[in-house]
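Notebook B, p. 112. Complex prediction, attempt 2.
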Amino acid sequence: MNRAGTVAMDDFASGLAYPTLSDEQLVARAKEGDTDALETLFVRYRQPVFRLVYRSVGNADDAEDIVQEVFLKAFERLHTFREQSRFSTWLMRIALNLCTDRARAQKRHAELLQREAGYKLAWMTHPNPPEPEEVVQQNAFHEAFYTALNRLPEHHRQLIVMRDLEEMEYEQMAEILNTTVGGVKLRVMRARRAFKAVLEPLLRQIGEIE
Amino acid sequence: MRNLCRQFAGWLESEPSGLTETWRAHLESCAACRALWQQEQAYRALLRQVRSEPVPACQLRWEAIALRLQTRPQRRILWAPRLAWGLGMMLAVGVAIGLWFQTTPRTQNPDSAVRLSQRESASPERTELRWRSAGSEAHPFAAEPVLTEPKPTHSDGEPEASPEAVPEARTRIARAPEPASMRGAVRPPTTQITMLAPEPIVPLGDTPQTEYLPVRYGEPAAAAVVAGGMPSKTQHAMEGVDENAIICSF
């Protein structure tokens, strides 16, 4: 993620109290109750977290709700942050966990509605149906991609988002997922196989591949 | 050829940046691998396209977060100390149960049988036994009276199963451990002392005339002395039954 330059510009542009302090220094100050440090951390990581969540849920409104929850949770539990990993990693982990929680809740809710409707709501089989105005703007590739992505299980979807869309390094992914680099590589490989298996028929439909 | 195709599929999954000359030559001769390569290229093109689409800017403001942080009730992790406390309690209860099992007497043990019988006799009609030895405050072998019910036996020596068959008036006094001061001293040849007493035993203090259990070690005369008088009819009647019996008269 090439967010370093953007982060610095955001910090200076918003007139933050501590634009030059490192994450560790800001976390230390925030633990002592310095709200300016919290604000600096929020402004620094708002957009990166939003990008990840947006890619995962595919909807800006839902993504903002989740991002807000991510920062609330992180700042409330900042005293539990042991600094064994980077703050950004810790934040991304919270974000992914909340995305997973939301996906589960959505699935449960959809199943409940389907059951009540006697399994006649076919459109609800897609957890994140594209909004009508977005459909107009999206081309066929985009639609096929997100349709396939939404059909994936949450753990596979997160890996595709992190590696193939956000282009995260394997090392950072390993930190976020609390596993080894080799383990992450294996999981990404499996996620890609699953993703391609879903994507291929969709691309065939639109004539992208033979 | 199949092995080469398998290697190519593995190579594709390792995120290669481009085709090498070896693989280019292989693709020219293998249609299946060529299709795989095309699929991979289509996938990458799709990823590039999706990545190039702009992500909307996050509209969240710090003021909203700060307000929520102020108004939201503090949710400290309360379960951690509770969990520790609960685990500590469980451990303590476990240790207590373990100790209880370790120290609780077994019914096969005469000592434990006495304790059980003592526990059972903890009632308003509780009977107390007071021992008196001739000329001394306490008998060395009777420091801790141990009472057990004798097991009735069949003619072939097997223990009787029915509790109704247990004689009511018989209790056996097992010997207490020998004190160190008495080791080596000459003592009566009896190894087992039996007390015979009619039921019920009158509780001490309930009658103006306090009575004591007479103790005898083998000799009727000694038993009479211990009993504080002449041997009673009961004593005489039981003389032939068991030489080692303690004859109790009331």
